[in-house]
Amino acid sequence: MAGAVYHVFGRAVKPHQLSIATLGSTAALVIGLNLTKKPAEKPTSPPINAASPEEEDFVKDFMKSLEEKK
Amino acid sequence: MVNRLVLKGTNYEIGFKHGTLARSQIHACLTNYATYFANAGMSPGDVKSLATKFSETIKLLVPHLHDELRGIADGACVPLLDIVALNSRSEIALAAKPKNGKSDESSSDDDDNIPVPPDGCTTFAETVDGRQWLAQNWDWQTSQLCNLVLLEITTPLDSPSNARMLKTMTEAGLLAKVGFNSEKVGVCLNALRATDLDTNKLPLHVLLRLVLESSSVADAKERFTTKYGDGAACFGHFGIADGKGEGHAESWEIGPYGIAVIPRDAEGRLYHTNHALVEGVKINEVIWLEDTKERLMRLKELVFASDKKTDVKTLAVGPQKDRIFSFLKDEDNFPNSICRANDDSQPGLLGEMQTVFSIVMDLKEDVAWVAVGRPKQVLEEFTLEFF
């Protein structure tokens, strides 16, 4: 059974050639997007506004005590 | 269950623990108030501008509480100005005049365009044979019910508050609201609405905390007039009492002009809702709810009716507490009653306001009873005491 023939830009193209071209284009697009994508940003939060070394030590100790309770 | 936070240390440490242990509630508060401010016509830029001014005022007048706000912000992982905005939320939403919106002065009771509801609270105080009672229904946005916290704070020895213990029911991220302290001083808040605003004075919720750091009503008044700017950034009512000696209670209508004091009546009682009772004060008040006057009249009716049935002087503590709670449970003029419920006939935020909690304080014994939710349909009940 003869397969259908598509006409693209005036040329006869067979279905399997069209499939290969479509898959190839999609792969290229995906790879291209991944290459241009910015690296994932780390979640940000406002900086700790501790005004003294004592406050910084308190923050560290308190957060550590909460971790130990988990 | 209400999130109960037991806090002590330096003010920064108290704040950091508060911010950390109530972090998700604080984030929810910020979301709710972002919506609320937007509905009031305040852009994020307007809010940031006002918060910046209030941050400077708080740092200048009460640096120890600015430290606590800094700690709350760090613990909650949010910018300091967000926490300042929460603590200035009455001023930002109820008093500020947005540049691109109409002024509150053009609003009226039946104006369909009023975008945000005000608080709708009812306060009652009574002195009976040297026993000082102070009580209130705090009515506010239903969405804030899940953001309630009970703060149990021991203030630092080296701060102006001088190692006092205080207990306050408030919204997560705020320094205080309604409560009492180990010196038998109690305070309640009723919102009053006026367009007057002075960013060189302290926000109401900061002042409520300062009342709870006082040793008596007289001490609070002396501190307010000499140290804390003599007045408030916006208009509001404090029901303030102490249980020392024979007991003492006053109504303060406080605003940028200073403090107007209403003494107890001949029966030793105070009644207040959400409109000014002092005449002649230079303030641009906006009456937004007719039910504020109806609730005031209704409260007096209930008390007078109770007087006819019972000699209050003969009541023991338990029945007296129940008597005051019965006033707070009243549903006359439902849903805009003393015990308020959501009003389905009102659109949006306007209809989403209810009694969020009720409190009755016996300041002579330094004990309080709290009912969370509408007192007719209590969600949780507990007793607060120091010793």
TrEMBL record, chain A:
**Keywords noted in UniProt:** Membrane, Mitochondrion
> In which compartments does the protein localize?
Mitochondrion membrane
Superkingdom per UniProt:
Eukaryota
Name a Pfam family for this protein: ATP19
Chief subcellular location:
mitochondrion
PANTHER family, per database record = ATP SYNTHASE SUBUNIT K, MITOCHONDRIAL
Q: What is this protein called?
A: Atp19 h
Organism, as annotated: Myxozyma melibiosi
TrEMBL record, chain B:
Peptidase C45 hydrolase domain sequence ranges = 130-377
**Gene3D superfamilies of this UniProt entry?**
1.10.10.2120, Penicillin V Acylase, Chain A
Region labeled Disordered — which residues?
96-119
Pfam families (alphabetical): AAT
Q: Which residues form a coiled coil?
A: none
Where would you find the membrane-spanning parts of this chain? none
Q: Which domain of life is it from?
A: Eukaryota
Q: Which InterPro entries match?
A: C45_proenzyme-like, Peptidase_C45, Peptidase_C45_hydrolase
Database matches in PANTHER family: BETA-ALANYL-DOPAMINE_CARCININE HYDROLASE (PTHR34180:SF1), PEPTIDASE C45 (PTHR34180)
Name of the protein in question: Acyl-CoA:6-aminopenicillanic-acid-acyltransferase
- Organism, by scientific name, is Myxozyma melibiosi
